[in-house]
Amino acid sequence: MADNSVLTVSIVTPDGKVYECETATLVVVRTMSGQLGIMPNHIPVIASLEVDEAKVTHDGKEDEIAVNGGFVEFSDNNLTIIADSAERQGDIDVDRASKAQHRAEEKIREAREKHDDQEVLRSQVALRRAVNRINVAKH
User: Fold this and answer.
1) Which residues contact 29 (CB under 8 A, 6 or more apart)?
2) Neighbour tally for 55: CB within 10 Å
3) Please, are residues 64 and 32 in contact by the beta-carbon 8 Å criterion?
4) Domain span at residue 118?
5) Which CATH number covers residue 59?
6) Neighbours of 57 (CB within 10 A)
7) Which GO terms describe its cellular component (predicted)?
8) Distance CA 45, CA 79 (A)
9) What is the pLDDT of residues 56-65, one digit of tens each?
10) What are the tens digits of pLDDT across the range 81-137?
11) Looking at the structure, do residues 44 and 22 belong to the same domain, yes or no?
12) Are residues 40 and 68 located together in one domain of the fold?
């Protein structure tokens, strides 16, 4: 019989599974509509995710995963995040993320000078992803 007091959490990307936990008691993510906390026996949910961190509480500790878009689906105490990309806190290369941040900032400046609104938007997304990775790594 399944344990109704815990969640099974999986985070997957096009490159494969990034994270799995079978003993979670709380997952907090940021959706397009705001922050969402899911505990065992929550009602079923499907929501689009913002570029932000996912926090998974289990066994008295909290894991943080940088999630860069995608969606979350929850039912029957199984939570799945399908993300464009995701990295566990300990796997984030802060130097690489900082370089990506600086590249994105430079591309934004250049695109604004050229009045290239599409490139500004693409570079802003890249900047949000880099800053998200840095923030998660430094928690």
Assistant:
1) 35, 36, 38, 47, 49, 52, 54, 55, 67, 72, 81
2) 18
3) no
4) 93-138
5) 2.60.15.10
6) 18
7) plasma membrane; proton-transporting ATP synthase complex
8) 9
9) 999 999 999 9
10) 999 999 999 999 999 999 999 999 999 999 999 899 999 999 999 999 999 999 999
11) yes
12) yes
